[in-house]
Design a protein that fits this description.
The protein is mostly helical. It has one domain: Na+/H+ antiporter like fold (Up-down Bundle). The chain contains 13 helices and no strands. α3 packs across α5 and α4 packs parallel to α13.
């Protein structure tokens, strides 16, 4: 447990630093917008190009990348039904949908590494392969569709997004076994390392201690972490998955709301206040719930 705390605490402290610097007027909301754009256009593509070629696309672990597809699309159907009952405005509905669909595997990785070692990390990345693919395609399309800024069609923005192209190039590199020169790998490592600090600083800038839209926020958390876990149990039970892969799927399915909920809210002019509150509270819950779930699963 001390190893997990040592890995997670710095992330929490960066979030706290962003919040403190906002409260002292060192940062403004516009700085958070800039940080999120850097993450979307630079850091995320760098991480995709760096890690996708390293993932072993083996039939042995086929259920790991399949599980997010089942979880995301079943969750989408449920979230649309719940969102309509809540009668949310378009930009808030967009955050509600995006928040329930993106599994924040980044938050779970320190726990996976501490509990399961390198093998757990590799399997978690395989699970996150399709999670990330859906995040930068289907979920981003939903964000574009529900956002207030519509200078171009949602499909066009998805097809021209930097993460989308980085993902395609990463898959090609993986399938062809091509290796990037070390200088590019080193560059991608540096750029990719910007993601967590910039995201957490942006989250601190946007964070407000008060709960925004209590009922939709509670519903989002229940769907993302509670229903998500239930869908994970259905998936592993149906395919009789045991061992480490079972644990990875169950913990991943219960992951908190993804950082990109806030990124998309900023980029596509959705309800940023609701997004910041949702992501912040979800991660706080996840930091306690995820290690507890790993402990229960053994």
């Amino acid at each position: 447990m001390s190893t997990i705390v040592a890995k997670v605490l710095p992330v929490i402290l960066i979030f706290a630093l962003g919040y403190i610097l906002k409260r002292t007027n060192f940062f403004r909301k516009e700085d958070g917008d800039l940080f999120l754009k850097i993450v979307f256009y630079i850091a995320v593509p760098a991480l995709l190009l760096l890690n996708l070629p390293k993932i072993e696309l083996s039939w042995e672990f086929i259920y790991l990348p399949l599980a997010p597809i089942f979880i995301v699309f079943v969750t989408y159907i449920l979230s649309r039904l719940v969102g309509r009952q809540l009668k949310l405005k378009q930009t808030t509905m967009g955050v509600f949908l995006v928040g329930t669909l993106i599994m924040n595997i980044g938050v779970t990785l320190p726990f996976f590494i501490a509990a399961y070692g390198e093998e757990g990390l590799i399997r978690a990345l395989m699970f996150d392969f399709t999670n990330a693919s859906l995040t930068f395609t289907f979920v981003y399309y939903l964000a574009c569709k529900h956002g207030a800024g519509k200078s171009s069609s949602p499909i066009k923005r998805v097809l021209t997004s930097a993460p989308m192209w980085a993902m395609l190039i990463g898959i090609i590199l993986n399938l062809t076994n091509l290796q990037l020169p070390n200088v590019f790998n080193n560059l991608l490592t540096i750029l990719g390392n910007l993601m967590v600090p910039l995201l957490m600083l942006a989250l601190g800038i946007y964070f407000s201690p008060r709960i925004v839209y209590a009922l939709p926020l509670t519903a989002s958390l229940i769907i993302r972490m509670g229903v998500g876990l239930g869908l994970g149990f259905l998936f592993v039970a149906h395919f009789d998955i045991e061992g480490l892969s079972r644990s990875i799927i169950l913990v991943g399915s219960a992951a908190p709301v993804g950082y990109n909920t806030l990124t998309y809210a900023s980029m596509e002019k959705m309800d940023q206040e609701f997004a910041a509150s949702l992501v912040s509270i979800s991660i706080m819950v996840g930091i306690v719930f995820i290690p507890f779930l790993i402990f229960i699963l053994g």
